Amino acid sequence: MKSNTTNNKKKEIIEQSTRDFQNLNEDSQMFILGYMVGIQQVRQKEKYNSPETEKEKTKK
Length: 60
What we know:
By secondary structure, the protein is mainly α. It contains three helices and no strands.
């Protein structure tokens, strides 16, 4: 039951964040989306260059 309450709370937070985002002006939205894309690219780069990935590269 507790996890159900937690899931509902998370859902409410996400829905409110979405409404707040939609109310921003276009420049602010683009800034936030650009930041998110940049973070995603950094994470992918880190994942690609991780020690485990380097080991897999040398095996091939």
